[in-house]
Write a structure and sequence with these properties.
By secondary structure, the chain is mainly alpha-helical. The chain contains 3 helices and 2 strands, in the order ββααα. It has a domain of about 60 residues: RNA polymerase subunit, RPB6/omega (Eukaryotic RPB6 RNA polymerase subunit, Alpha-Beta Complex), CATH 3.90.940.10. α1 runs parallel beside α3 and α2 crosses α3. The N terminus is likely disordered.
Length: about 100
């Protein structure tokens, strides 16, 4: 049973379930990009951190390292940069002092 929403003219409109809202789920292109990026950075937590940092940079005006279309979002740009090898990461492990070794 769908919920209803009253409009100002008192017509009833069914509220569609969230499954039909296109912005809730990634598009086929985004999921394909995500699968390809996971081949370059297999750890999902690291991938999320790399993409989120790059999205923040892009949203602040930093230039993209790839050619892209006008309708590509920041996260898709970051994923494509990872896939093309333009964006990498390095895990840094803290060095222990010699007394603790």
């Amino acid at each position: 049973m769908a919920a209803t929403l009253y409009l100002t003219n008192r017509r009833l409109l069914p509220i569609l379930p969230l499954l039909f809202v296109p912005s809730v789920f990634p598009s086929d292109m985004s999921s394909t990009l995500l699968e390809e990026a996971l081949k370059k950075i297999p750890n999902q937590q690291v991938l999320v951190n790399v993409v989120s940092r790059r999205v923040r940079q892009l949203s602040q005006g930093h230039p993209s390292m790839i050619d892209h279309g006008p309708r590509l979002g920041y996260s898709d740009i970051a994923l494509k940069e990872i896939i093309e090898g333009k964006l990498t990461y390095e895990l840094i492990t803290p060095e222990l002092p010699e007394s603790e070794q």
